[in-house]
């Protein structure tokens, strides 16, 4: 049997005359308003599992964001640059305003990455994963538990603490800290 007639095992595709595994593309969606150290932890851990990660920044006007969509995309890009370099991989940041599962398919993702902090997160995420599976059974949802030092961090709480004058230094990266404090000063003026 010649090389060209050899069957290709499932999950492989041809590239430059030899069978190669498909690229594992993951999608990590969120509002990232603001991006927290918990988000960065999940991104860094997901990056080790994938060939490419797309961080999707949802428009989410209903949540009354502190930052515009463009500002959130810019902050996420700045804060994750070192993670991409450290892992020698591509991490793209893209805004989106469609169903998460539709956007995952559009970018060719085979996996949606979700971070879990507590049991209460799981109940909600379990429902969403079930809905997504019904709409796209070829896209898996993978849950990553937040590291113990980040399990309690939520963007909503970070904003609330900052607006009430509390210290959020340990919850967000440096650039995000500066931008959050600046925005809160602007909003109070």
Which helices and strands, and how do they pair?
Layout: E1 13-15, E2 18-20, E3 25-30, H1 37-47, E4 52-58, H2 69-87, E5 90-96, H3 100-106, E6 111-116, H4 119-135, E7 140-145, H5 155-163, H6 174-188
Parallel strand pairs: 3-4, 3-6, 4-5, 6-7
Antiparallel strand pairs: 1-2
Helix pairs in contact: 1-2
Summarize the structure in short.
Helices cover 41% and strands 20% of the residues. The protein has 189 residues and is an alpha/beta fold. A five-stranded parallel β-sheet has the order 5-4-3-6-7, sandwiched between helices.
Q: Can you characterise this structure?
A:
The protein is α/β, with parallel strands linked by helices and 189 residues long. The chain has a domain at 24-151: HUPs (Rossmann fold). 41% of the residues lie in helices and 20% in strands. It has a five-stranded parallel sheet, sandwiched between helices. Strands 1-2 form a two-stranded antiparallel ribbon. The relative contact order is 0.17.
Order of helices and strands: EEEHEHEHEHEHH
> Helical stretch count?
6
User: Tell me about the biggest sheet?
Assistant: 5 strands, parallel
The CATH homology group name of the domain at 24-151: HUPs
**Radius of gyration, in angstroms, nearest whole number:** 19 Å
Shape: globular
Keywords summarizing the entry:
two-stranded antiparallel ribbon, 189 residues, Rossmann fold, alpha/beta, 6 helices
